[in-house]
Write a structure and sequence with these properties.
Layout: H1 8-31, H2 39-43, H3 45-83, H4 87-104, H5 112-134, H6 140-148, H7 151-176, H8 181-204
């Protein structure tokens, strides 16, 4: 069978997704910290194995949750360019998908308020990802530089994204109503801002 080579657009999509995964994993590591081994885990191997897989699973779930809106928005922006779709059509498909998730939730974890806030975040992210996908360059740094030109321009986007994400997190806290949720969200937001700032500095420099 003839192998279909990836297009430039495919390469850009994978580059952006890889970067978002990297950010998500870095945030996860900052929020879900490793715990020192207990004497029982050292003495009884099966306890270490059980705790290891439980810990790894919690990190994987957190990373996937962090990527949820990013992946939906990136795929939508990709389809808009590749298939010539307009934004309204792309957003409509996401609305259908999130509505199905809401309808299937019988534990009250995913609320209409969370979904509405996520749609605002996704709308913002679609424009961001489309801007990157249409910019010159195949690697992430090149796309960023050609899309935003200066760190000041990119920071303006990050301010809007931070606010959109904060509204999603607030809605989630109001829905879940867990006492420890506030501390977890605060830790996540601070880690996200720190990690994104460091990566922006690496791409654009300090004073650009």
């Amino acid at each position: 069978m003839r192998r279909i080579l990836p297009t430039v657009l495919d390469t850009k999509h994978e580059s952006i997704l890889s970067q978002e995964r990297s950010v998500a994993k870095a945030v996860t590591s900052a929020v879900i910290e490793s715990k020192p081994l207990t004497v029982w885990e050292i003495t009884i191997p099966i306890l270490f194995i059980a705790n290891f897989f439980r810990f790894r699973r919690s990190r994987e779930i957190f990373t996937l949750n962090f990527l949820f809106t990013k992946k939906l928005a990136l795929d939508a922006a990709f389809d808009m360019i590749k298939e010539g779709q307009d934004k309204e059509e792309a957003v409509a498909r996401i609305k259908v998908k999130t509505k199905e998730i809401l309808a299937s939730d019988n534990k009250g974890i995913y609320s209409q308020k969370i979904r509405q806030r996520q749609m605002k975040e996704i709308d913002l992210l679609i424009d961001h990802y489309r801007k990157l996908l249409e910019a010159e360059g195949k690697d992430y740094a090149s796309m960023m530089k050609n899309a935003y030109h200066t760190r000041e321009n990119y920071n303006a986007f990050l301010v809007r994204l931070k606010q959109a994400e904060k509204e999603v997190n607030t809605a989630a806290q109001q829905t879940v109503k867990v006492v420890t949720a506030y501390d977890l969200v605060s830790k996540m937001e601070k880690a996200t801002e720190r990690i994104r700032s460091a990566r922006a500095e690496k791409i654009f420099g300090i004073d650009s």
